Amino acid sequence: MKPRVVIDTRGLFCPLPVIKTSQALQNIDPGGLVEVIADDPAIVLDLPAWCHSNGHTIRRREKRERTYRFIVEKGGAAGGEPGAGGP
Known about the structure:
- The protein is an alpha+beta fold and 87 residues long.
- It has one domain (5-73): 2-Layer Sandwich (Translation Initiation Factor IF3), CATH 3.30.110.
- The chain has helices spanning 16-26, 43-54; strands at residues 5-8, 33-38, 57-64, 67-73.
- The chain starts with a strand and ends in a 14-residue tail after the last strand.
């Protein structure tokens, strides 16, 4: 699962990581992947909620120390549950 776009939003706070994710998803086809790197703890609630309400799917999420990484699949492709994902 290799993302086409990687967005590093470390140092940015709500709502900027979600806005940057939205902008990146506009530039790729449905089914395309974006990796989001963030250090704002609010991202663990904000990004899944935003993805769910906009039809995108979180394919993977992880936390290492104070950094969060998400793989977001752009909606519009077959399969997947919006907002679902790993632990």
